[in-house]
Amino acid sequence: MGSMIKVLVAEDMHIVRGALVALLGLEADIEVVAECASGDEILPLAQSARPDIALIDIDLPGKDGLTAAAELHEQLPGVRTLILTSLGSPGTLRRALAAKVNGFLRKDAPADRLANAVRGVAAGRRVVDGDLALAAWDSEECPLTTREIEVLRLASVGSDPTEIAAELFLSAGTVRNYLTTIVSKLSARNRVDAVRIARESGWL
Q1: pLDDT in tens, the chain (204 residues)
Q2: Molecular function (GO) terms listed (predicted)?
Q3: What are the φ and ψ backbone dihedral angles of 41, each rounded to 5 degrees?
Q4: HSE-up (13 A, CA, CB side) for residue 106
Q5: What is the rounded CA–CA span in Å between residue 104 and residue 177?
Q6: DSSP character for 171?
Q7: Is the domain 146-201 a CATH 1.10.10.10 member?
Q8: 146-201: same fold as 5-138?
């Protein structure tokens, strides 16, 4: 890697993205080479701009940040990923690590920590917010299977069992069984409560 660290910034809030670009622009060894506002733009932009680091907000329109990070890892493994989030839950960190991200930083971290995180990830280290890492270490594993999470994620946006069944190529009866199991595993009162519990734990 050359002396300049080339960074792509993906953040949908224009003021926040502008602030990130401005902060990184103050660093002599960091150059922002591309910026975008949606997850769908990240891979094409990275293919053309060839950044060293993709700084990605976890909550993006289109593809979410973790999906985009996993896609980058698969198709452009030379681009390292640093996730920014305001959702500092241990479950969210677990999902980020499963997506093979190289760094995970809260948005309320001090400004100097951002530049140091970019440098750390560029140097090949995995950079994770310390307090969050400890919380994730102590936190409960998600009790839901990958399929159950898929079902609950679709239910969380208002899809009914018939629609979920069509989306996942299952029968409506199977989907209802999944939902019953999910509610039971999470000790939830109902489907809405199950969605709340899963979101607060960072599993969705």
Answers
A1: 458 999 999 999 999 999 999 999 999 999 999 999 999 999 999 999 999 999 999 889 988 898 999 999 999 999 999 999 876 565 666 777 777 899 988 888 888 889 999 999 999 998 887 655 555 544 556 788 889 999 999 999 999 999 999 999 999 999 999 999 999 988 899 999 999 988 877 787
A2: DNA binding
A3: -85, -15
A4: 13
A5: 35
A6: -
A7: yes
A8: no
- The half-sphere exposure of 159 on its side-chain side, counting CA atoms within 13 A, is 20
What type of residue is 28?
A: A
Describe the strand order of the beta sheet including 80-85 as a list of residue ranges.
30-36, 5-10, 53-57, 80-85, 103-106, 127-128
DSSP type of residue 62 = S
Q: From CA 36, how far away is CA 54, in angstroms rounded?
A: 11
DSSP letter assigned to residue 9: E
- In contact, 7 and 33? CB cutoff 8 Å: yes
Query: What are the start-end ranges of the E strands in the chain?
Result: 5-10, 30-36, 53-57, 80-85, 103-106, 127-128
Check the CA dihedral 194-183-68-88 and report its sign: positive
The domain spans of the chain are 5-138, 146-201
Q: How many residues does the chain have?
A: 204
- Longest Cα–Cα distance of the chain, Å, equals 59
